[in-house]
Amino acid sequence: MFLKKHAQDTYIKYILAADGRILLDEYDDRVLRNYVKGLDGEQLFYEMTQSLSCLQLWDVSVEMKGSVQFDFLFISDGRIYHFEIKNFSGNYSFMHGNLVSEHGYVYKDVLSQLMRADYKLKELVRSTRYEVISRVVFINPSFRVEGWRGHSNVLFHHQLDGVIDYFKNSEVTREDYELAAYLIKQHRTHNKYQRIKYYPVTEMKKEMRCPKCRKLSLCHVKNMHYTSCYCGYTEKLDSTIFRVIDELEILKVGPLKITTLVEWTGLNRKTIERFMQKYCERQEKYCYSLKNVVKTKESTTFLPEIT
Ligand SMILES: [Zn+2]
Fold it and tell me: Ligand 1 center to residue 156 CA distance, Å?
């Protein structure tokens, strides 16, 4: 049971919203590609493990003489299992403790990075009786590594069924909840990138983004109340418009107006007017805001009352 899920910081939200609409500079582009690749791996691990009964936290960052980040923490049977997810794909060689890709990219010892986080986690829960167990998970099924002799701290995709089975019948105790609540309380969202370079809105491509393939290729299906993308994704038209409004806010497009929404969605004015009437209230001339009742966004943390 996930009590905390990953949440994007403002900078990541911004580059995700700007991606494909304008040419990103080299730095933003690199951060974006790395983020998306990493997130795809974490998303896969999340989906594979989300039906487990033990307490689970996704993405906890703690300030402890420098910040340390834990991808996944599972609490079960007097232990905290810490999983660091790596989404490397393709063929690698293992040389002198480093992973070297076919293209010659070298990834420095991933195990020492894991052990640093493991040490910090042990410090963090020192006053409890919980034992810490840390593993690197190479989540991508296509990842192959030549010269690898095996390591007890490393798991590959084909070993995950065993891991999932292990947690299947976990029983959650009050103490587990207390520890989860403590860890969530320690979490700090930090903007590790520090800066957002805002690109000119007027030069951006104004089309609707598909949340599945992330391309600007979501289209309104004529005379129907839904949108679809050639990747196979479909959704209700109103949900698409809500997402567009979110993106416009992140991109700092300015006040919410009917003309703005028509321009950024390509939908006809009547459709936008119907949406506005249902979900928005009029502010000053031509400007609208979402009604408070529809504003509530999905929370990324969930902590039941401990009785
Ligand atoms: Zn798509």
Answer: 29
